[in-house]
Please model this.
Amino acid sequence: MFAKTSLYAISLALGLTTLIPSEASAHRRWLLPSSTVLAGDSETITVDAAASNELFVFEHRPMPLDSLVITGPDGESVTPVIIGSGSYRSVFDLPLTAQGTYRLALVSDGMMGSYELNGERHRFRGDASEVPAGATDVRMSRNSSRTETFVTLGAPSDTALQPVNSGLEMVAVSHPNDIVAGEPATVRFLIDGQPASGLEVEFVQGGTRYRDNAGIQNLVTDAEGELVLEAANPGMYYLEASSSQDGADGEPDRRSSYTAVLEFLPL
Amino acid sequence: MRVRIAYAFAATSLVAVPAAAQELSLSVEIPRLRVAEYHNPYVAIWIENEAGRAVRTLDVWYDIDLRGDDPEKWLPDMRTWWRRAGRSMDLPADGISAPTKAPGTHRVAYRQGSRPLGNLPAGRYTLRVEAAREVGGREVVSIPFQWPPRSNASATARGDAELGAVRLNLSR
Model:
């Protein structure tokens, strides 16, 4: 009985850690911008980065900003002004000096795995070189995660939205800063550059703390990896998806997750 | 929003009038509001075609001389106009950008063949007037019309909060 329980506990722990690229990801991970649609020659937005259960509430832990990647309208990276991290959130400012659309992302990509040695299960981060001689039952996975949001100064543009073709990502069919409540918005998901068909996506409006029923929409992509987002009410929305493929012939498993915050404006 | 359309058949409609006289004019009422903090609203006036595409922006009233801040910062608060036209425009624009207006009724006129109306092709259109007020609300008033007008015509629509009566006059 004891042995059975501990085995179960181990596999559960393994399952969780291998599924989850970063430690915070048992919770919802998000980048919340102060505005998504801006005007003028230049502007500055401020962005909160946090992991939480309720949307968009600072209640669990800050998201680290060392993996922050910001792509400007010309496709080049843009440097944010990091304010810092508190108990529940990280904050950065982003000066917008070029007209067009910016893609803000927390990106992680890495190998991890586990093996058995002398009757004990060990976990590690890194590639196969971390596995000592004599290890058995080696399992490895490549884990990617991406947490995004989008902002536009002036007219929307597409350069920053080109797919990176790594991990799970959302490619805009409807521009992410040209979406309004009451109008369907189409998005496409790619896994390592290929259409992510049959992907389950969770779509929910912020303000869950004030609703008994969170109103989560569970959506599934079609053969092209596309689905339609419909927001009845204007507001900030959260979107989350993950995919997992077991590796064939000793190849590492492929695990990938994606989250985004999208603002549906009133029209 | 209520729209009332009335066609006024004036004696002049019997007389051949040169095309250059075709004019679209309107009066826009900005209501006086009793609020703790009042700022004149931003107002955009534009024309959409039957497909809902903005084909002309006629006027944008905003803080064009705002000191110490970007005058264009709050233009997206006129959400409908910003999405359909403003974000793709180069502002300030000659003959379009103008300072905000105080409560009262303001009259503006646009002539066929002259900027900003230019040569508006014949067709069915919608005039839209959108107002957005700092620390206040937003409202859009719409009036459908035919161009060029077969006769002198006028139509009135009324906002409920941020706009009072908007009256469109078409003269041929």
Observations:
- The radius of gyration of chain B is 16 Å.
